[in-house]
Amino acid sequence: MDRRAFLRLGAAVPVSIGAAGISPAFAATTSPTSSDPYPASAGWRVYEMTTEIQLPAASAPATVWVPLTARNLGDYQHTVSTEWQAPGAQARVMRAGSAEMLVIDWPSPTHGAPLAGKLTSTVALRDREVDLGAAPSSGAGRESAAALRDYQRPTRLMPTDGIVRQTALAITAGMTDDLTKAQAIYQWVVDHTCRDASVRGCGTGDVVKMLKTGGIMNGKCADINGLFVALARAAGIPARDAYGIRVDDSQRGFRALGKAGDISKAQHCRSEFYAAGYGWIPADPGDVRKVALEEVPGGLPMTDSKVRAARAMLLGAWEGNWVAYNHAHDVRLPGSGLAPLPLPFLMYPQAKTVAGTLDSLDPAASGYRIASRRVA
Predict the structure, then answer these.
(1) Is the pLDDT of residue 23 over 60?
(2) Beta bridge partners of 350
(3) Tens digit of pLDDT for each residue in 129-158?
(4) How many CB atoms lie within 10 A of CB 34?
């Protein structure tokens, strides 16, 4: 019999599914009198994301860790529901820091049937934009002091001392406010990095290695945006990566900045920084470099109007065709024992079978497929 669970995301109540059956968890977050809590007239678009897992029966015992979409992020991302099926398995929601995930265990072979699981999430999204030309406002979103301290701490691959701090101080010399400093760091990162198509996945986010190259710093989004975050933190600015996945084509005319349908390889890391009077502000230098490299065959120069448009837009805004999973670094998967070091981030399904750890950057080898579609 299939084990099945359904969540209406709200109060954080643990979920566990095992031999005893189903444990319901979350209450609806929307008003029962609201006929359409996410109207298109208010800029909302609703997407269904489906992650399917299929591994050979001989893979058991096996465990899969699938990142869950962040529940509520400001006024631009709300996870409406999450539902899963895992025949013959034990499945439960678990957390490592700010990373929430569905953990599916097959403790023994399933009598010749493949190990199969399916996760379906419905997420409401809309564009976000912060007017950096406006004066600071007392009504802007505020973050707790504890969270701001947390988003200034170093991580294993993103230290805030040594060459990182030296670089950050050189970029921001003479500047006194966080907004001006962050803008300068953003422009510096755009100018001194380059997207490298040969890097697997989204990169690793090893910012010291990048800075020690002594020239143009190549990488993917986790490298380029991770560099922005590390430099901002080293300059005393709260900043964070947002690890997620693209779910639709761009409606702003950027071919390189969207993906619909099969999104198994559409993972993308964005970044943000915090400034008093503005709240959390989007910043995505990695996607500026993606437009330069991939918007048209052969790439575009940084002086091209389309690259300049992306550069202007991606400091202060991002398009709602992307879903965030979490802001977590140095993630230790519950019960995994995968490696002595934690994962730098959780953005891909992870799997461990009787044969060992699977390659999370290869969907076919890891037995997963992720798809998205827009729903009414």
Answers:
(1) no
(2) 65
(3) 999 999 999 888 889 999 999 999 999 999
(4) 9
Predicted local distance difference test score (pLDDT) of residue 260? 97
Contacts of 82 (CB under 8 A, 6+ apart): 6, 7, 9, 68, 69, 102, 119, 120, 121, 122
Q: Where are the alpha helices (DSSP H) in the chain?
A: 145-150, 162-171, 178-192, 207-211, 221-234, 285-294, 305-313, 363-366
Q: Which residues contact residue 153 at a Cβ distance below 8 angstroms, ignoring those fewer than 6 apart?
A: 160, 233
* Omega cis (within 30) before 136: no
Predicted local distance difference test score (pLDDT) of residue 14: 34
d(CA 343, CA 243): 13
Q: Give the three-class secondary structure for 36.
A: coil
Residues 6+ apart with CB under 8 A from 31: 37
The C-alpha atoms of residue 13 and residue 337 are separated, in whole angstroms, by 26
